C-alpha cells in the first residue's frame, strides 16, 4: 500500500498544534495561577511544552496540577500533580506526539 500521508502533512499538524498553546494555569493549593510557557522544544513529530515556577512566595505550597490553555482561556491539556514546592524552581513538562492514521473505506 502506498504511503498516503506525506511528511509535509505531518509537519503541518505539528505546526498547527503548537500554535494553539498560549499559557498555563497552575493549581497551587487550590488557587489557579497563570504562568507563561517557559520553553517549547519540537523534535520531529513531538512537541514538548515547559512551564517554570520560580516564585519564592510559593515555597511550601502544594502544586496540585497544571493545564495548558489557548489564547481564549480554553483548556487544551491537563496534568495532575501532587508536589510541595521547595526553595528551588519547579519545571512542569507536557509532551505531545503527533500521529495521523488513514483508514481505507471500501
Structure description:
With about 110 residues, the protein is mainly beta. It has one domain (about 5-95). About 10% of the residues lie in helices and about 50% in strands. The chain has one helix spanning about 5-20, and strands at about 25-30, 30-35, 40-45, 45-55, 60-70, 75-85, 90-95. It has a 4-stranded antiparallel beta sheet with strand order 2-1-5-6, with no helix packed on it. It has a 3-stranded antiparallel beta sheet with strand order 3-4-7, with no helix packed on it. Strand 3 (about 40-45) and strand 4 (about 45-55) form a beta hairpin. The longest helix is centred in the first third of the chain and has 13 residues, at about 5-20.
State the gist of this model.
This protein is mostly beta strands and 106 residues long. It has one helix spanning 7-19; strands at 23-28, 31-36, 39-43, 46-53, 62-69, 75-84, 90-97. The protein is 12% helix and 48% strand.
